[in-house]
């Protein structure tokens, strides 16, 4: 297994190109299951999770062609997806257990074929992560769903019907699943208390290009008119706001000066506000977002919430930054119940963090020291890389495959800005 070695102490300076959003791309790829026409996606990041989604969709019968950027999008991959015929309605355990986002095929398969068999994803390093809301929403649209042998076995022999469904809790994945099911359902679907993440908006805009009338985009009530057939469409994936926030925090950690090219500040206002309160300067530029820091870092309190709140996917990175701030910071995680797996590893590097239920009290320390560390999910892993950039001596990051799921060429992007970082093979 690969490792990454980082020697701390270098300031990051230069440009970092922000990739297309992983969490926007995954549902957009699944939308190809809804139609027999071509769906062209530009600005797709090159990541292990995208490869896993290609594997899953291919076995459902989606023909996928991966090319380099065209149409003026010289960055990322361009994927052309077409599903002339669904060859299998089963999403097998072996793929779903590797990547939970696989459950997004449930709504689309059910809507198009009237049947789907999708493995339950099981537990996860950041919490229990049930799929009850996906199931309840599809049932409200007329689906019959049983659990059998670890699989969700779903049928809609007479097709899905538009319905009004109010999510009892905001869920990104369940909102996406129901949006795709609604696209081919008979009649109108109204989703209340829907997730409002920019990735949801990106999916809604792509569905609209595919000929599905969607209104309420960007609000907590989405209204989707089902259609009989979708059209061919071309869509450019939004920049990754979590990758943007991650590099902003890495630059701030080293008191660096970097332009995040292709980034959109409007997609990360809550994180930008917390970073500004901590003493980081974020400025919109013609090419993206410029990050610098004039003075020291201050401790700030942060609470994760669904969008437009502070994202849970930046909580670990913010904590890494706060380990070196002046004063204390209270970091509260309200989205997932056990997303503090990075804390013991940060402590091994000299951080002072105490957990009280869903909050972590971080007291800034004058220095961190390099160590051998590993993490259990990709955001926790990258938080250790951020800590390593400011630590004294060498840090070796183990289980790098977590990083490869969500960060495209992390070591190249950081090295190009002056970080002392290398991937150790094998
Ligand atoms: C998406 O996961 C993201 N993944 C996650 O990013 C992100 O952390 C999360 O949204 C929250 O923003 C993708 O987009 C592929 P949820 P998702 O359903 O859709 C509970 C990363 O690092 N819940 O919004 O699975 C759930 O347990 C990943 O890139 C139910 O109770 O998240 C959690 O507490 C990690 N029942 C909360 O809702 C359900 O049926 C939010 O989960 C579904 C969810």
Average pLDDT level: 96
Share in β-strands: 25-35%
Record field, number of beta strands: 26
Helical amount: 25-40%
* Rg value: 21 Å
How many angstroms does the end-to-end distance come to? 5 Å
What are the segments in which pLDDT stays under 50 over at least 5 consecutive residues?
none
Give the strand line-up of the largest sheet: 23-25-1-26
Helix count, per DSSP?
A: 14
**Which ions and ligands are bound to the chains?**
ligand EPZ
The major sheet is characterized as: 4 strands, mixed
State the shape. globular
SSE diagram, text form:
Blueprint: E1 3-7, E2 13-17, H1 22-30, E3 39-44, H2 48-60, E4 63-68, E5 77-82, E6 90-91, H3 93-96, H4 105-113, E7 115-119, H5 132-140, E8 144-148, E9 151-155, E10 164-166, H6 172-183, E11 188-192, H7 198-209, E12 214-215, E13 222-225, E14 233-236, H8 241-253, E15 257-261, H9 269-277, E16 280-284, E17 288-293, E18 302-303, H10 315-322, E19 328-332, H11 343-348, E20 352-356, E21 359-363, E22 368-369, E23 372-374, H12 378-389, E24 391-392, E25 394-398, H13 401-406, H14 410-415, E26 420-424
Parallel strand pairs: 2-15, 3-14, 6-7, 10-11, 18-19, 22-24, 23-25
Antiparallel strand pairs: 1-25, 1-26, 3-5, 4-5, 7-9, 8-9, 11-13, 12-13, 15-17, 16-17, 19-21, 20-21
Helix pairs in contact: 1-2, 1-7, 4-6, 5-6, 6-7, 8-10, 8-12, 10-12
Bound molecules: ligand EPZ.
Ligand EPZ is lined by residues 23, 26, 100-101, 127, 129-134, 169, 171-174, 312-313, 335-336, 378-379, 406.
What would you note in describing this structure?
The model has no long low-confidence stretch (mean pLDDT 96). The longest helix has 13 residues, at 48-60. Strand 16 and strand 17 (288-293) form a beta hairpin. Helix 10 (315-322) packs parallel to helix 12. The protein has helices spanning 22-30, 48-60, 93-96, 105-113, 132-140, 172-183, 198-209, 241-253, 269-277, 315-322, 343-348, 378-389, 401-406, 410-415, and strands at 3-7, 13-17, 39-44, 63-68, 77-82, 90-91, 115-119, 144-148, 151-155, 164-166, 188-192, 214-215, 222-225, 233-236, 257-261, 280-284, 288-293, 302-303, 328-332, 352-356, 359-363, 368-369, 372-374, 391-392, 394-398, 420-424. With 426 residues, the chain is α/β, with parallel strands linked by helices. The chain has a 4-stranded mixed sheet. It has a 4-stranded mixed sheet with strand order 2-15-17-16. A 4-stranded mixed sheet has the order 4-5-3-14, with helices on one face. The structure holds ligand EPZ. Ligand EPZ binds at residues 23, 26, 100-101, 127, 129-134, 169, 171-174, 312-313, 335-336, 378-379, 406.
